[in-house]
Amino acid sequence: MSFSPLVERLMESLRVLPGVGPKTAQRMAMHLLERDREGGRRLVETLGVALEQVGYCRRCRTLTEEDVCSICTSVRRDDDLLCVVESPADQLAIEEAGGYRGRYFVLHGHLSPLDGIGPEDIGLDQLEARVAEGAVEEVVLATNPTVEGEATAHYIAAQLSSLDVRLSRLAYGVPMGGELEYVDGGTLSRAFNGRLPFRGE
Amino acid sequence: MSFSPLVERLMESLRVLPGVGPKTAQRMAMHLLERDREGGRRLVETLGVALEQVGYCRRCRTLTEEDVCSICTSVRRDDDLLCVVESPADQLAIEEAGGYRGRYFVLHGHLSPLDGIGPEDIGLDQLEARVAEGAVEEVVLATNPTVEGEATAHYIAAQLSSLDVRLSRLAYGVPMGGELEYVDGGTLSRAFNGRLPFRGE
Ligand SMILES: [Zn+2]
Ligand SMILES: [Zn+2]
């Protein structure tokens, strides 16, 4: 025996969520159907709208339902600093650490030739054009301190080498092999202040 | 800083799911928006349809999108045995333990006067009418071995006392204070075989 076909389909579709196995999916389906249909309807509505309307900021590529995001339109941010991150979650972690007042550029990933992810897929043509505009004086390469993040930083450094811009990298206060989004604010903040010139060696 | 308003609303609405706190909701929202929009759209579609179409079986009250569920319509189940459970998840656990070939009745909860949940809210009028039809010879009271489950079993026993039907309760192989849905199949199976006459003392 199993649940009815539609309930089974619901449990299966809940497994699209990260960290959700069969038992958790069953508990979630039962909770929504037995105890919180109103909350379930709100989730359907909000997720539907978000999937339809949330796209990339035209200028920095972060997730937003606007054409240009609130950080890009803010007049209180420095145009001469540009921080390149792999994900909106990394960007949020840096914002929450405090202290950084420049702009951002979001890659949504890193170079990964084996997965067929090349420079255009992570917006590097757009990044180069942005820096070529001339306002940016320093690019902070805040990709993750992983093998892929390092390789991506090196690629970007080579790509921007002919442009008149300083490159820096977060100081290694951030633990090797870790993910920025899970680093505590104090460590991130110190890593930002201790950032070093990027040599691309 | 936070994410854009719509992304924040998505994270908030994901917290309707059991066991999902702020950090998990963020991870889920990022996963859906960054890496699996197709899976997200399937979830919207399936959850929407399930919330609209899945209701209670007219005969046993289990969750189903049909008018009457597959166990109630099956000709291979015994009409003289009726097992009363608190939830569809408990029913599934008993089915997966194997060995039981009777019918079911699903309460969707237990009596809880403090929460305003009375006999009609858990279908006890319908249960009495079902037993009064005369085909059922034994009612297995398989409510959870918790204070509320015990109280509900006693209430049902009193309600059915004037009818010509045997009452039994699962043997206490199931751990006190636990929830049926998490009991292993072997224990459940033994508890079923060792079920005792219910005295309602
Ligand atoms: Zn932007
Ligand atoms: Zn049924």
From TrEMBL, chains A, B:
InterPro entries reported in the protein's UniProt record: DNA_Rcmb_RecR, Rcmb_RecR, Rcmb_RecR_Znf, TOPRIM_dom, TOPRIM_RecR
Chain intervals annotated as zinc finger (C4-type): 57-72
A single MF term (Gene Ontology): zinc ion binding
GO BP term, pick one: DNA recombination
Keyword terms, alphabetized: DNA damage, DNA recombination, DNA repair, Metal-binding, Zinc, Zinc-finger
Domain Toprim: 80-175
Keyword DNA repair: yes
The organism's place on the tree of life at top rank: Bacteria
Key word Membrane present: no
HAMAP family in alphabetical order: RecR
Entry function: May play a role in DNA repair. It seems to be involved in an RecBC-independent recombinational process of DNA repair. It may act with RecF and RecO.
The family this protein is said to belong to: Belongs to the RecR family.
Name of the protein this chain belongs to: Recombination protein RecR
Species annotation: Halomonas lysinitropha
Gene, per the UniProt record: recR
